[in-house]
Amino acid sequence: MIAGATVAAAAIAGRYGILAWQAFKARPIVPRMRKFYEGGFQAAMTRREAALILGVRERVVAEKVKEAHRRVMVANHPDAGGSHYLASKINEAKDIMLGKSNDSASAF
């Protein structure tokens, strides 16, 4: 009697496991979060690096650059707990993307 109950419990557990595995495999594929640039900053900022910092393409209109700059600065502003270093790099990236003079590069 105990052996029969054990076999029945094993069969039910096995059936549940198979159904759970099939449901797991049939779930819709959810796109992963956007992967961010993992590298550090270069000694002299390039247009490519500036575009990566702002999250825009290298060839983009000024309005998109300004919008991206605002969005990134809101998230990283020093008054809101962000880093002064990152804020200076974000401002430098905006200046490079807008074609402004890079004579006064980042203070860091």
Automatic annotation (TrEMBL):
It comes from the Eukaryota. Keywords: Membrane, Mitochondrion, Mitochondrion inner membrane. It is found in: Mitochondrion inner membrane. InterPro entries: J_dom_sf (IPR036869). This is J domain-containing protein. It comes from Brassica napus (Rape).
